[in-house]
Automatic annotation (TrEMBL), chain A:
One cellular-component annotation, GO: plasma membrane
Species name: Glycomyces sambucus
Keyword match Ribosomal protein: no
Family of this protein: Belongs to the binding-protein-dependent transport system permease family.
Chief place where the protein resides: membrane
Region span, Disordered: 1-38
Name of the molecule in the record: Multiple sugar transport system permease protein
Domain of life: Bacteria
From TrEMBL, chain B:
Membrane-crossing residue ranges in chain numbering: 12-34, 68-92, 104-125, 137-156, 193-219, 239-260
GO biological process: transmembrane transport
Family designation: Belongs to the binding-protein-dependent transport system permease family.
Keywords tagged on the record: Cell membrane, Membrane, Sugar transport, Transmembrane, Transmembrane helix, Transport
Gene3D superfamilies in the record: MetI-like
Name this protein carries in UniProt: Multiple sugar transport system permease protein
Localization annotation: Cell membrane
Source organism superkingdom: Bacteria
Amino acid sequence: MPTGSPPIPAGPATAGPAGDLAPAAARRAARGPRRGSNERFPRAERLAPYLLVLPAVLVIAVFRLYPLALGVNFSFTGDGDRNGQPVGWDNYTALFADPLFTASMRNVGLLVLLLPVAVAIPGLLATFVYLRVPGHRVYRSVYFFPAVLSPVIIGAIFNLLLSFDGPVNALLGAVGIGPVDWLGDPGIAMFAVVGVHIWATFGMALVVFLAGFATLDASLIDAARVDGASLPKVVRHVIVPGLSRTIQFVVVTTMIGMLTSMFGLLYVMTGGGPEGSTYLPEYYIWFQQGQMGRPALASAASTVLFGVMLVVGMAQIAVLRRAGRED
Amino acid sequence: MAPLRAGRWIAAVPMAALAIATVYPLLFTANVAMKTRHEYVLDRFAPAEGLRWDAFASAWAGADMDRYLANSLIVVAGAVALLLLLGSMAGFALSQLRFRGSRLLFLACLSALFIPFQVIMVPLARTMGQLGLVDTYPGLILAYTAQFLPFTVFLMTSYYSGIPSEITDAARIDGNSVYGVYGRIMLPLGRPALLSVGILNALFCWNDVLIALLMMPSAEHRTLMVGVTALRGQYSADIPTFAGGVLIAAVPVLVLYLCFQRQITAGVTAGSTKG
């Protein structure tokens, strides 16, 4: 019996640790004052937690969850003349027959292929910062700052940098490589935009990696070094396994970032061109909804994008889980 | 880690190069903005002849940036205030109070984290239209609140979970109502998290262009970032003024970053360690 212990605090929150140890009788006794306080303002108090959560839940339910259901439903109705009529899978058929949409899906594939690069760069840099390369404190701040700039501003700046007679081509010219039409060549434009996106966001992943490093056991790395392990070996056998959760987080957030936060860059830098080569599903959705007045078709594209994100997210988590278990 | 010393200097070279690559685009743009059109056409790389602010002034006056800035400030302030209020109320209740269904409500809030705006933008635009909220300040404020609330609720809940429930219990014994505990104790205690989440949300809302384009179609209601997208067309022949306008839009964010770097990085990493 916790006779000597102070009275267990009242309140609707959980009983303290002492309450968990006390036998049932003591717990019942301890609940006494709580019931008393409930009786002072019984209904209002019981409803209070719900009233506190309600506004947030209402906003999320009405403006996030409900539209998701509405959108899926919407994608099976028609546009224009057939507005509101059920059309079955017509929108999806039209979608996959549209070269712009298939181009956007191909670009999604390209993003998946470039994902390892987008994760490895900040990972490697974070390793250097963690190993206290001279000036590492400054680098951390400098690398992060493009991440706070709007994609619109970054896109505008890189419109200048990547212009045909801009600094990037001047730099390439200095080492004897001919000028590249970064944003005008259908074979290159997408790589240019993704490159700018990585430039703008690697600082974000770097900071996440560093937070992961902070949880790493430094003595393990020291021990490996003492045993004569080279840096690549330390990375492969100590750092990567120790950071598996962080890597998983970065992989998923980077992929989601590439699928959902490149609109500003595309809008400012290429407008989907040249020849529709820089379309991504998010840009296609906006284009069909805002420019072409085909909301039902856009909804179908939204549903496909949501499916892609679910699949990509789950596949990555599954792969990384398995990799983590092998270590 | 003494044996690494030589390797550290080798790594420092690409690190420094990358740091330059990170800063240079902004410096180049600032340099362009200080030039006259003539200087820019002659040589776009040479340093400007002095600190000249004409381009900033003409972008400010010629591209309606004052109006766009006001629009942005109204919308960001409204959305952040609403996010912090709703997020802290929900976070307090979900972490400190035990009630039937709390877990389910928390999961409902979290699940919305995985619904990107692009997936719901068509039906959302329609719902907003039916409510008469398209092209109004409350409409965009509400859209931003809905977009960033799941993240805010998540962070506030995890922050308040770290506060021992004994504090709530003691305050209740002293005769505070649940609302009293929230207003008198949890809001002040939550200040560090509110600051971090508030700044992050301000950045998100300030930097957004897609939601603003969709919800605020008319030119007079443009936010600053939507205004920036229009600069290129307006000043295609006057690149220094274009650069000046872009930089005007970038400065508030850079100042915010310099002042609150710690809070911003803390907010970004908050989700990663708790997974």
